[in-house]
Amino acid sequence: MKALIVVLVIGTIVFRIAKPIALQFSAEQDFLRRRNVWFALTVTAFLSPSFWLYVLVATPLFAWAGRKDSNPVALYLLLLHVIPFTPVEIPIAGINALFPLDNYRLLSLCVLIPTALRLRHSTDGLRIRGLTAMDALLLCYGALQIAFFIPPDLPNHVILPDSFTNALRRAFLFFIDVYVLYFVVSRSCSSRRAIVEAQAAFCLSGVLMASVALFETLRHWLLYVDIATRWTNDTSFAFYLTRGNALRAEATTGNALVLGYLLAIAYGFWLYLRLHLKPKQPKMAVTLILWLGLLATYSRGPWIGALVIFFIFAALGPRAFSGLFKAGAVVAVVGGVVALSPLGEQIISVLPFMGGTIDSGSVAYRLEVTQRVWELIQANPIFGDHRPWIKMEDLRQGFGIIDLVNSYAQIALYYGLCGLSLFVGFILVGLSKTYLFARTLMSSDPDLASLGACITACILGTLLMISSNSFELGLVKMYYVLAGLAAAYAHLSTSRETR
Q1: 3-class SS at 335?
Q2: pTM
Q3: Which of 35, 257, 428, 457 is the most exposed, fewest CB within 10 Å of its CB?
Q4: Domain-by-domain residue ranges, the chain?
Q5: Chain-centre distance of CA 430, in angstroms?
Q6: What is the model's pLDDT at position 353?
Q7: Does the pLDDT of residue 231 top 50, yes or no?
């Protein structure tokens, strides 16, 4: 109850302050409905003794809100992390379980799939029609995942066998977890306003998570872990991860690294959104909250990723040289102030390239894992190694896991260079089209060009950050959301609105 009260107070303050800003990008009815659903689901999650009671409440709410909302993608992004990641197996007679259900999949089933069905019958001439090169690359990557079964790294060296039923399950989960998400974002965001509204909704979600993260670090209290442990009976969800003497906040993401990544993307969106704010609105306050949330994760990769996004956005602006100079000056001044403050010592202590020694062993461990993975990739370069854990047992650490925190190495290990090429090529197609379209608009429509620069910067920052993070949780969702936004933005070049 104490945690619920704290979360409700934080949520009330954030929504009240954010309302005037949010209403510049979305209709008031949509904003109020999304806010009310967020509060209803938060209260339900904290008070519910079972995940299935939460499902009973959330399913009709998601379905109703998704049908009423003028931009279901914005609704999806705001509610994506309303509760922590808590996978619970769906029991079924005859087999152990059907598949794990969590908030991500519940949103997909109740919001995204109904939206996709409506889009299939839509007469909107502005949206993407048929399959594109990005669709083909993504579907080929999915086919590779369906064809090759990678057994999970289970304790006691148990290797689960594959079956036709399991392949069908993988196909279904790829469809609802990945393809439907990309399809709905790329087809539903068929106008400039829809893209911007989706970014604003995710930015609002980022401010909520950053505010919770700041409280968690200051009070050394993870507010949401009780929900996951109560619903799953898994005490590992309640583990407090620290770096030095500081608690690494995770809010509703389930992982400090993932939270840092999501806040870096929210900050990237904010770089564009703040250009639309009136002079008296709190531009610096939102920036400060997002960065304090980033610092509360004590995650080095997202810090660097957010800075890279900031510099790329400045470099792609209408006055690139002056933009980069101003960006460098801002970073130098802010960095100097932070370095002289008590917070500066804590930040420097976790940065090995600045002489920091805290958790320096994790850097050495990750380098060792990466070297071993590279050897396995060289041995199986085309389609990867489908039983990699057997050959890496000596790298198993104290938590009983082999901690591979490089998404590129992870995908190349499992699916070879073929899989890695499809995975990266998919988003690079959207990135290149977005960048080229934005460049053509620099003089004729600077605002739309800045929107393209924002998406480009966020994708490049993501491609950097996933090199030091496992491809999991909210990171996966935002990778495909960014790809969908890039596809939707590039398609604006053919619309009557842009012409």
Answers
A1: helix
A2: 0.89
A3: 428
A4: 84-99+122-494
A5: 18
A6: 47
A7: yes
Helix axes 360-379, 407-440, angle to 10 degrees: 90
242 phi and psi angles, rounded to 5 deg: -120, 160
Q: Whole-angstrom Cα distance, residue 388 to residue 395? A: 12
Phi, psi for residue 95 in degrees, rounded to 5: -135, 165
User: How many residues comprise the chain?
Assistant: 499
Residue the block writes with tokens 């039923």 = 165
71-88 mean pLDDT? 93
Give all strands (DSSP E) within 229-330, no chain letters.
242-243, 246-247
DSSP codes, 350-382: T-GGGT--TTHHHHHHHHHHHHHHHHHHHHSTT
| Distances 47 to 41, 82, 94, 227, 385 between C-alpha atoms, Å | 10, 14, 32, 9, 44
Alpha-carbon distance 404 to 410, whole Å? 7
Q: Which amino acid is at 114?
A: P
Burial 117-144 (b: 16+ CB within 10 A, else e): eebeeeeeebbbeeebebbebbbbbbeb
Cα(235)–Cα(237) distance, integer angstroms? 5
Element (H, E) at 320: helix 320-340
The CB density around residue 162, as the number of other CB atoms within 10 Å, is 14
Cα(441)–Cα(375) distance, integer angstroms = 45
Closest CA to 160 of 209, 97, 229: 97
pLDDT of residue 59: 94
- State the residue for tokens 């579907």: 139
Phi first, then psi: what are they for 61, rounded to 5°?
Answer: -65, -45
Q: Report the amino acid identity of residue 212.
A: V
CB 99 within 8 A of CB 169: yes
- What's the rounded Cα separation, in Å, for the pair 140 and 415? 12
What's the CA dihedral at 410, 295, 305, 282 to 10 degrees?
140
Q: Angle at Cα 207 formed by Cα 70 and Cα 298, nearest 5°?
A: 140
User: Roughly how many angstroms between the first and final C-alpha of the chain, as a whole number?
Assistant: 54
